[in-house]
Amino acid sequence: MPPDHVSERRGYAYPDAHMSTPNLGWNLHGVGVESMGRNGRPEPIVIPTPGPDQLLVRVDAVGLCYSDVKLINQGGAHPKLYGRNLAIEPTRLGHEATVTVIDVGTALQETYHRGQRLAIQPDIYVDNRSTAYGYTIPGGLIQYQLLGPEVLDGDDGAYVIDVDDDIGYAAAALSEPWACVEAAYTQRRRLAPLDGGIMWIVGHADDPVAYDFSSGLDAPSRVVLSDVSPYVSELVAAHARPNATIQARDAIGPDAYAALAKEMTNGTGFDDIVLLDPESSAQVTAMAAQVGFRGTLNLVGRRPLDGLPSIDAGRIHYHYTTYVGNQGPDIAASYGPTRNRAELRPGGVAVYVGAGGPMGQMHIQRALELAGGPQTLIAVDVDDARLQVVRDVLVPLAHERSRSLVVVNAGEDPAAPARVVAEVTGGVGADDVIVSVPVAAVMGDAARLMSADGMLVLFAGVPNGSLTPLDVTDVYLHNAQFTGTSGSRIADQEVVLAKAVAGELSPERSLAAVGGIEAAQDGVQAMLDGRFAGKIVIFPQLSGLDLMGIDELAARHPTIGQKLDGGRWTTAAESEMIATFGTSP
After folding, report:
1. Is 454 helix (H, G, I), strand (E, B) or coil?
2. Considering 464, 484, 504, which residue would you say is the last residue of a domain?
3. Which residue, 86, 181, 291, 339, shows the most beta carbons closer than 10 Å to its own?
């Protein structure tokens, strides 16, 4: 039994093995918000005694995420549900969850204990198949639930992380979306040719450049050559790994690239493509479409393309397709983390497109709290109400950190972002551009704001096949970076929780609204309506707490408001809220 101060600090009574009756939850039975629960209310859900390999947990807080809306809109057609009939086998939203262990199965008692606080990492893999919590596995919009091998025994072991007692419930739940933000600045791209993969090298038969293939060719087991000079063919043969298959093809045009990829890779795409002396944007457009999952396109040359290729922004985000390059002659110089950064440029200028939304705000906050982060930040959005939150919450933080945060309303003046970036950078462009708007055209426009050696972070996801013009010339002539990430891993969430304990990050600062168990459906609808410019957190153990913004909560309940920090959420305010509303019966 932990000391009494643990339960007092957290607000909830110390858990015993007897959970509330009835146990309320929001199962999802189909498409649409109305498919949550029954008749607009949470439904009673029976939870059996945990088996030997299960935990009974109390769900303490659940953050709502816009990806929940995607699941609401698609139902069983969502990619992570694999065609599941939710009318027969419902699931449950709530992948941003923190829980407390109530009862431990006999086989787990050496690993877990009653009262243990855990954050759930929802991006779960079992036998390399995604079985995400809050999707395939019913999530946290319930008061109590069982967690078994589907969460505790995946490919990476247990997909739960211990939570320090000093971290509030909301902060712990929000560690998951914060982990996604953290992951955006860690290297997810493959930055070397795939060992045992298929490489395609494309050039010009009359190219006189003496390329260096002395490294980089020891990885692929098969190399396909098309339209390369005899000199390049000899170099590839000399430096390829032993027993590698080398296949030569006659010169082919971009309209034949898809057929070649189908022939050579069975339609999965090349693991690595090397383009020597690129010059045609149409060629790069066609070639980029033949890069496989987590594949690389390495451009080596000295002349600019004749225009902007159309690049699949969705695949940069979801498939981690990688664009590397250099001016030559060393093919391998394009690869590696030294040339290809993922973190924000220290002391630089960073632009945030979609800055007023919850995730945009979190990206800005991370940059402001990051030691050695950018000196000047430019927040761009089209919604002035959301930008006002940036002014009220993040501009003061920028002042505290001796940084500059400039707010730009592109809705009032679409030309303003480019003008402000030019003024701030002397026409050079921003070092980093982070896009949290899931629109390919916006991503292409945002890319024009960055410097020739800048980094474009496509945080928002658009469907694969969403093409947008990107200046790929800058990749090989000036070392520009195009990056994107989807989701997070356990290590990312551990970093966030460690930063929170160390006082280097305040995950709860992004909280905009709260509600009790009955308010979950209203919370999802609020996301659809864009009602709050920040994160919504549901507290399943609280009953009778309507969904409301932090300012409204403070106005209605002054004792809670007194414990806010300049209108921002705190663990003290959270404890006061729990004391005010009590636990559900």
Report:
1. strand
2. 484
3. 181
